[in-house]
Design brief:
The complex is a heterotrimer. By secondary structure, chain A is α+β, with helices and mostly antiparallel strands. Chain A is 55% helix and 20% strand. Chain B is an alpha+beta fold. The two termini of chain B are 30 Å apart. Classes of the chains: A alpha+beta, B alpha+beta, C alpha+beta.
């Protein structure tokens, strides 16, 4: 009887279904875009430099010094190779020193990277503006930021001198060539960091084969804790494993803050669309009170009517939900593969801030469970009042209902 | 007008239904109000914080100093500039400063810092570090005093009364060092500033760097960050009036000093419009749905009305009025509700201290005060009624499609 | 009454004498180990829990005004030089043939990895200028009678220390031990002198040990291999041209 009831008034039913469908659709894509963009931005930041997980000497993250470097033993390498969800890893040497050209001397941070593996772990190599990035053919070349180049009054191809304090305390110095210019968009990076070949850096700092950190990239962002647990179990006591939240705690906090904001926003959205659903379901029930009055007068019991309404509502909810999910999923998938690019001035600003100028979505399971649960809750809540009204309905009252 | 009255009465024919629609609008409007005012509050406070902590509205230097802070690039004839500024009534004040990069060290540790030499009685009119002292006091007329942030003090393992040595390159390129005693510890709430700025008396800085009477920077403060460009224009025109050659100086507004911050503000601005859009769409659909239903169930009536001669156009207008009125009522109530919630928040602030590190890295304090400005008010008051008006269109058109005779028989 | 006043005056005088002596004692001790000008070779050994490093150097000093230190071994560092003129310092690096002036930000970094900082090398002379010197009492250090002298920085002296205790041997006015304390009373650094020998007709401590009291196991030893005093050192040695040779 419920089913027939539904289709007797197609118009009404369709309107109600579309209310639910729209609510579902809106919730789904809002959450998907929110989560998607958030996730993509974290990944971007993590991919750009820090990597998902890092292995360092104990105490390095809190107090990074050259002294806290370590030998990458064979055992370590085999442990790393069997990390679950491993995508790739690379080694780095980090130290500081002075760079000099003509009479200009500046303090810089020196990053020794592996030309082949670094590309698989971070996006540093993408930021080259002119010249070449670090490679295995020109080990004597370094890459400096555009701002530093300006301060040094140098140009591509010039020779510069690097002066450092070595691992053993002695002074180290090397004459190297500027092989590439980088523009990362962030002034402090461009003015304060230089890149060189990891093996050359090891020579410069007299590290005798030691490195500062191993940076690891995974296939799945959500599996970071699993990989981290595995490493902690299998690494010795002198090494420590850190994920990006430990290396960039401000990023985590910013993201947390953002997610609180978006949770509030989504909540408000659901309340608003919830009202829409409530009204439509309510109306579709109350406008039939006359019929219900008749049915009751004919002897049917209130409880039967209640069940009818409940079934109707469930039917409508599910159909609406399904439609909304399908449409929402379709849009999500489309945007997932074709992110909406933000163009114009905003795009540049975004890039400068280190964010990607686009809106992304995610296709993870979460958004569906989130959406489905909320919409169903709203639908059931919307049922409460009408059901209550029906339970109180008396035949005559119903018939006289206008 | 008759149509409007009719529309109004129609709304109240089914109180419950209309109330639910109105309620959804109330939620939408108050949420928009609060969201936007919160956002505006954050933006303004961020900028304010940066300006009041150190940068100020306008900075005057010798040309080129902003990009490359060399010790010998002192402001030529700064006295003339100061006397001009002293006469400007619209400013809060101006401060003469010496800026240099140096090293401060204690027995335990050392730290690279930006040393700012200033005169407290001038500086107090420009920045509010003196209000952000958490231990000890601000600089006074004494010598060899230093005020630094809690972070740096912890790194150097010093407290009030402890000794520090500052080392920097003076105007001749020679290494110069001087002893200071910690008199105060501050917390600006902006991570970056805390990490680098330390404050010493102007006279000490000038002595240490062998600058004689010279200074590097004059910071000028005026109320309201948007006034910075006006201030710059005023200063430049005063320069012209007093025959000061302007191209040896650079007069920079806050926006020019912090272009990234301005970009950030703009991005946020754009985002807030998108929020309005989404809320608008949510409300729209709810209203369209409801209106559709009420229109459809009154098709019979409409048929009757149309057959007695009332033109379709009027009918459309009536339906649109219905949704518009609901929109207006909802907006007014929503606005009021929003205001009621906004008011205590704007006085007591919203506590964000569990995110304090992130807040500090953005330059925000832990208490955020939402702010209402004309923009927010106009947006909130206009958008939803507009939306509801649009919401009425589709149902209205559906209603008039039918011929009167069919309409009467519609079930 | 007159006797009392006389005694008082005597005591005052002797106290006065004592405090003047304290300054003189310090000055003498410092002069003993610096002299007008000197040149010599010495070996520096840097020790910390991870490793040990030995460097052989040759140096020329003119009082505390100018100094040139050239590294002779190990091969990797041979040819590197440090030049000091008044309170400024330059490093010359053989590998790249570049001379870099040490900026203020590097002044507090260790000199060649030792427990001395660049600043220590550059600033040693100012004890008399920057400190109030007071004789405390006598004490035995390594079996020798010494004066224990307390040095307190003058109010505006740009030094981080709170107090320096300086023990000078009574017999030969040579320094025996120096301890550096911060204002809170924590001992940061100890410089001890030993192996007193005659070199170029002068008795000097040939072994100087600098212990970092904050980091266990960290110390640096300087051992004089040979030294000549009051040598005539041509001024051009302390020039940049000489650096780059």
């Amino acid at each position: 009887m419920a089913w027939r009831g539904l289709w007797r008034n197609k118009r009404r039913t369709i309107i109600t279904i579309s209310a639910v469908a729209f609510a579902t659709f809106l919730t789904l894509i809002s959450k998907a875009m929110n989560d998607g963009t958030y996730l993509t931005n974290i990944k971007y930041a993590v991919d750009s430099y820090t990597g998902y997980i890092q292995i360092n000497q104990k105490g390095y993250i809190d107090n990074p010094t050259l002294k806290k470097s370590f030998y990458p033993s064979e055992k370590l390498k085999s442990v790393i190779k069997s990390i679950p969800y491993l995508k790739s890893y690379t080694r780095r040497v980090v130290g500081d020193g002075l760079i000099a050209h003509k009479s200009n001397t500046f303090g810089v941070m020196i990053l020794g990277i592996d030309p082949v593996y670094e590309k698989t772990v971070s996006k540093i190599s993408n930021k080259i503006k002119e010249g070449n990035f670090i490679n295995n053919y020109t080990k004597n070349d370094i890459v400096v930021g555009a701002k530093l180049l300006e301060k040094l009054e140098a140009k591509l191809g010039d020779s510069i001198v690097i002066l450092v304090s070595c691992y053993d305390g002695s002074m180290g110095d090397m004459k190297l060539r500027i092989g590439g210019i980088m523009k990362s968009g962030q002034v402090e990076t461009d003015a304060g960091i230089i890149y060189m070949h990891v093996e050359k850096a090891q020579d410069l700092f007299a590290l005798d084969g030691r490195i500062s950190s191993i940076v690891i990239s995974l296939n799945d962002f959500d599996k970071i804790s699993i990989a981290k647990y595995y490493l902690e179990k299998n690494l010795g006591n002198e090494l420590e494993v850190s994920d990006w939240t430990k290396i960039m705690p401000e990023l985590k906090q910013t993201m947390d803050m953002d997610s609180v904001n978006s949770l509030i926003f989504l909540g408000i959205l659901i309340v608003i669309v919830g009202f829409g659903i409530l009204n439509t379901i309510l109306m579709s029930v109350t406008e039939r009170f006359r019929e219900f009055g008749v049915i009751l007068a004919l002897g049917a019991r209130n409880i039967k009517l209640i069940w009818v309404v409940i079934f109707e509502t469930i039917g409508i909810s599910f159909i609406g939900l399904l439609i909304g999910l399908v449409l929402g999923a379709a849009l999500n998938y489309y945007v997932y593969f074709n992110p909406i690019a933000i163009t114009g001035i905003m795009a540049d600003m975004y890039a400068d801030l280190g964010f990607i100028p686009a809106i992304y979505t995610t296709v993870s399971f979460d958004i569906y469970t989130y959406t489905i649960s909320y919409i169903l809750i709203v639908c059931f809540l919307a049922m409460v009042y009408p059901v209550y009204k029906i339970s109180r309905l008396e035949p005559l009252k119903g018939i006289r209902f206008t | 007008m008759f149509i409007a009255k009719l529309a109004w009465r129609n709304i109240w024919r089914n109180k419950r239904r209309s109330l639910i629609v109105i309620l959804s609008i109330v939620v939408g409007v108050s949420a928009s109000l609060l969201n936007d005012s919160y956002g505006v509050g954050i933006m303004n406070q961020m900028v304010d914080n940066l300006i009041k902590s150190h940068d100020s509205n306008v900075q005057i230097h010798k040309s080129g100093f902003r990009d490359n802070k060399k010790v010998n690039d002192v402001i030529p004839n700064f006295n003339r500039i100061s006397s001009i500024l002293a006469k400007l009534k619209e400013i809060n004040g101006y401060s003469e400063r010496v800026i240099c990069f140096g090293l401060i060290s204690s027995a335990a540790n050392s730290s690279g810092v930006s040393i700012v030499g200033l005169k407290p009685e001038l500086e107090k009119n420009v920045t509010d570090i003196h209000k952000k002292i958490i231990a000890g006091r601000y600089l006074s007329t004494g010598r060899n005093e230093i005020v630094l942030s809690k972070k740096v003090a912890e790194k150097l393992e010093v407290e009030i009364g402890d000794k520090l040595v500052a080392v920097a390159s003076d105007i001749n390129g020679n290494v110069s060092s001087q002893m200071f005693r910690v008199v105060g510890i501050y917390r600006s709430g902006i991570s970056e500033y805390d990490n680098i700025y330390v404050y010493i008396p102007l006279a000490d800085a000038q002595e240490m760097l062998n600058l004689g009477n010279n200074i590097h920077e004059i910071a000028v403060s005026i109320e309201g960050y948007r006034k910075s460009s006006e201030l710059k224009a005023k200063i430049l025109s005063e320069f012209n009036k007093n025959d000061i050659v302007t191209d040896i100086y650079e007069v920079s507004t806050f926006q020019e000093i912090m272009p990234l911050m301005m970009a950030f503000l703009d991005v946020y601005h754009q985002w807030s419009y998108i929020i309005y859009l989404i809320i608008g769409i949510a409300v729209l659909f709810g209203v369209v749905n409801t209106m559709l239903m009420t229109v459809m169930e009154r098709i019979n009536e409409f048929g009757v009305i149309m057959s007695i001669g009332i033109r379709r156009g009027k009918l459309v207008r009536m339906i649109i009025y219905e949704s518009l009125f609901m929109g207006l009522i909802g907006t007014i109530i929503g606005f009021t509700v929003g205001l009621l919630i906004y008011y205590p928040m704007s006085v007591n602030g919203v506590d964000m201290s569990q995110f304090s590190e992130s807040m500090a890295s953005f330059g925000l304090p832990n208490q955020i005060y939402p702010e209402l400005n004309m923009n927010v008010v106009i947006n909130t008051l206009l958008i939803i009624p507009l939306v509801t008006m649009i919401a009425g269109i589709f149902p209205a058109i559906k209603a008039i499609r039918l011929q009167p005779s069919e309409a009467v028989r519609f079930v | 009454m007159r006797l009392f006043i006389f005694n008082l005056v005597l005591i005052c005088l002797s106290l006065n004498l004592f405090s003047q002596s304290a300054e003189e004692i310090i000055k003498k001790a410092e002069d003993m180990i610096k002299g007008e000008s000197s040149s010599g070779t010495f070996t520096m050994t840097v020790v910390n829990p991870d490793f040990k490093r030995t460097v052989v150097m040759e140096s020329w000093w003119v009082g505390n005004e100018k100094a040139l230190i050239v590294i002779k071994s190990p091969a990797k560092e041979a040819g590197n030089k440090t030049l000091k003129i008044k309170n400024e310092m330059w490093n010359y690096l053989k590998n790249t043939e570049t001379t870099i002036k040490i900026p203020p930000s590097m002044m507090l970094q260790s000199w060649n990895g030792s427990d001395l900082t660049n600043d220590d090398l550059v600033r040693e002379s100012d004890l008399i200028k920057d400190y109030d010197i007071k004789l405390l009492f006598e004490e035995k250090i390594q079996g020798e009678d010494c004066w224990k002298i307390e040095l307190t920085p003058k109010p505006t002296a740009p030094v981080v220390w709170g107090t320096i205790y300086y023990w000078v041997r009574k017999t030969d006015f040579l320094p025996a031990l120096i301890q550096y304390y911060d204002e809170k009373g924590n001992l940061h650094r100890t410089m001890s002198f030993s192996d007193y020998k005659i070199m170029d007709k002068r008795k000097i401590p040939t072994k100087w040990t600098i212990v970092n009291n904050k980091k266990t196991g960290h110390y640096t030893e300087f051992i004089y291999n040979d030294v000549k005093f009051n040598v005539k050192i041509p001024d051009k040695i302390f020039s940049f041209k000489e650096l780059e040779k």
